[in-house]
Amino acid sequence: MSTYPLYTTPVSTETWDVPASGAARFSWEYDDGRQRLLDLYQRGKDKQWDATKRIDWDQPVKHSNVMESAEELTAIYGSRQYEKLNQAERDDLSHHMSAWLFSQFLHGEQGALTVAGRIVESVPDMDSKFYAATQAMDEARHVEVFAKFTTEKIGLFYPVNPDLARLLADALGDSRWDMPYLGMQVLIEGLALAAFGVQRDVAGNPLVKQLLAYVMQDEARHVAFGRLALRDYYAQLTASELADREEFVVEGCYLMRDRFVAKEVYERLGFDVAECVEFTEHSPVQQAFRKLLFTRIVPCVKDIGLWGPKVQQAYVNLGVIGAADGDLDALMRDDEQVADRMEAEHAAELAARKVEVDAAISSGAGS
Q1: Is-contact 209 342, C-beta < 8 A?
Q2: How large is the C-alpha radius of gyration of the chain?
Q3: Given pLDDT bands bounded at 50, 70 and 90, which one contains residue 367?
Q4: Rounded (5°) CA angle 118-48-200
Q5: Alpha-carbon distances, residue 100 vs 17, 67, 272, 333 (angstroms)
Q6: pTM of the model
Q7: Quick one: average pLDDT of 126-142?
């Protein structure tokens, strides 16, 4: 079934063509390469999984509260606009917010898939090409997962957020091989990973928690890949070359801040958009959410060497400079462990259910 009729706002049936510049780079050096990247490549191979088998798609989802999260976490909870809504309208808002959120996850993953292919083509080192090839498979699986969930469980799509589209176009349109890395692996993937983590932790719906945890397990490796490759490369650049990358980071971070404002939902539902946006700008819940969104980006940007005064001032202005000293490695390990633990718990539940069914069948046969 086509997804075009499920969009809240009509989208073009033509492809979105982003002009790409730069060279396809071949290397005739087939030596082993950097051990850290080769180890990551091995993990990428070992951790491949099948979305149709690993995820229990039979778990139900309610349109009125897809996430099964607390009402207080609604972006405009407590606002004048929210207070005048009846319960049916609040349920509709919840449905649209989930549709918008998962649509952005989906569009971002298609962007990541395209960028991963671009990295395979443009990166000069064979060890990076190896790992990027495994990431392309990961991203294809993520597109599959979010498309299936949004289509079958939510039944509603939103177009790509303009800020996300702009950053994707900027990263893909730059001829320098490291810029898709920087735009996607550090900024877009870093923000998405944090957003996945927030939603995973507040969601009460088992299916939502499961699919986000499994996607995050892959994404943790992707961010590590960007850190390893860019840290080595940026150590060789001149001050002016680093300043150029830092300018890109600052602009990209402001775009990513605005990526999760959800103006499109308020427009679609006929709310006062300016009032809703103004409320969320000063909401303690949303300010805390924004800070959490940058927990993966800020320490990563610092780690790869893009830590000049302009970047630091931007993070002060965004109110996220405190994330600079965060333990990114610990966060990534936790992402891996949460997914493994959730899979083990789900397997135990299935095994217990099978024992109950077998016992019931045996009891019935003996009566």
Answers
A1: yes
A2: 22
A3: low
A4: 90
A5: 23, 13, 18, 29
A6: 0.89
A7: 92
